[in-house]
Amino acid sequence: MFYKYMIVTSSDEERLYLYLNPMQDFSNDFFVSNVYQYDLNFYRKIYHYLKNRNIPFHGNKVSIVVQDIVIATIYLNDYDAIRDELVEVLDHERIGKFVDLAHSTGIIERLKLEDYVFGVVSGEMPAVFHEEALKAQAVIARTYAVKRMSKGLKIRDYNATQIFRDRRYLKEIWGSSFNEYEQKVLKAIWETKNEVLMFEGDYIDAYYHLASNGKTEDSRNVLKLAYPYLISVDSDWDLDHGYVSRRVVPNSYLSNLLDMKVTKDTRVEILIRTIGHRVQYVKFDDKVFDGLILARRLGLDSNDFSVSIEDDYTTFTTRGHGHGLGLSKYGAEGMAKAGYHYRQILEHYYPNTYIQKNK
User: Residues with Cβ < 8 Å from 339, sequence gap 6 or more?
Assistant: First the structure.
C-alpha cells in the first residue's frame, strides 16, 4: 500500500509523509464515491506499517502522498490502537468537503474545507479581534472557497487571493497564546458551520479589504462591473482606527512614471472622486491620470490620496487600505465592538445578500 516514507522535523513537530502506490487498488480503504475519506481500516494499516518497519516516528501528523501531491492529512491520536477504535466520531456532514490548496511552492495539499477556513481566518484577521468579526470572516472565507470549487477553479494561498496560514506558522506568531487563539477561531468557524453568503441563488464574489476610508467602494469603480451587493456603504467604524499612511517618492522617479517633468511648480488637481471618496481622476499640469491605476503603480495603500510636491520629493497621503470592496476588516471589528452580530455585519457590507447553509 505504501512504498516509501519521509519524516520531516521542524522546530515544534515531526511530520510523517507516507507515499501511496497509485497503481495499487486501495479504493476499499481510502476512496469512496469519488471522495477521499479515511476509516478505521485505513488507520490500522498505517499503524501496522509503522510498527512492522520500526519507523522511528514520534509525532502525530501524517500526510498521505500520491504522485507527489498531499491528498490528505490525518492525526494518529485519532486512533486508539489498544481498543482498535477511532477516538472521535467522524462528522459525516463534513465528508466530501475538501479543498485542494495550491501553495506558492507548487505543492497541492488536500484539506478539509473547515481546516482551510481556519487557516484563512487565522491568516486574514487578527485573532485578538472580536468573535463576531471572526465569524463574519469565516463565512466570507468559506464562500470564496466554495464558489471557486463550484467553478472548478484553483484555490491558492497567495496574498492576492486569500492568505492561508498553517498551524506551524501560527504557533510561531501566536506563541504562548496559540491554544487560546486556536480555540477562539475554531469557535467562530463552528458557530457559522456550513454557512455561505448568497445572492439570487449563487455564491457571491466575496471581496474584502483591510480598512476603508469611512466608506466602501462601488464595484463599478474597481471591477468595471456592477454587483448589486458590492455597492458603497458607510463604514464610520474605520475612522476610529484611522488607517492613514504616507509614501514619499523622488520627483525624478515620479517624472519617469508619469512621463513628464515633475517639479515643485507642477500643478496637481483631483478632478473626480468616486462615490467611495477615492480618486477617480487626477491631473498633473495638463495630463490626466486614472487614480486607481496610478495608486497601484505607486504601490499606495489605497486610491484615496492627496498629493504634496516639494523641491525633490512628492508625498502621497492615503486613507484606508485596499480596494475598498465589500467587508472592511477593521470596520467589522468596530461593528462587533459596538454590539453588532456577524449576520448584521455581513448584511451591512454586502447589501441584498443572504446567508445559506451549504449542504
Answer: none
- Alpha helices (H) along the chain: 27-30, 40-52, 113-124, 131-150, 167-174, 178-190, 237-241, 251-258, 291-298, 329-337, 342-349
Say how far apart CA 180 and CA 127 lie, in whole Å: 9
Residue with cell 496637481: 268
Residue 47, burial from CB neighbour count under 10 angstroms (0-12, 13-18, 19+): middle
Per-residue model confidence (pLDDT) at position 46: 87
- The number of angstroms, rounded, from the C-alpha of 353 to the middle of its chain's C-alpha atoms is 20
pLDDT in tens, 194-235: 999 999 999 999 999 999 999 999 999 999 899 999 999 999
d(C-alpha 290, C-alpha 280), whole Å: 6
pTM as predicted:
0.73
- Cα Rg of the chain (Å, integer): 25
Whether the CB-CB separation of 165 and 174 falls below 8 Å is answered with no
d(CA 250, CA 311): 9
First-to-last C-alpha distance (Å) of the chain: 33
Measure the CA dihedral 42/48/54/55, to 10°. Answer: 0
Q: Which residues pair with 272 in a beta bridge?
A: 281
* pLDDT, tens only, 167-180: 889 999 999 999 99
DSSP string covering 109-148, please? Answer: EEEEHHHHHHHHHHHHS-TTS-HHHHHHHHHHHHHHHHHH
CA angle 209, 212, 214 (to 5 degrees): 155
Beta strands 31-32 and 79-80 are unpaired
Average pLDDT of every residue of the chain: 86
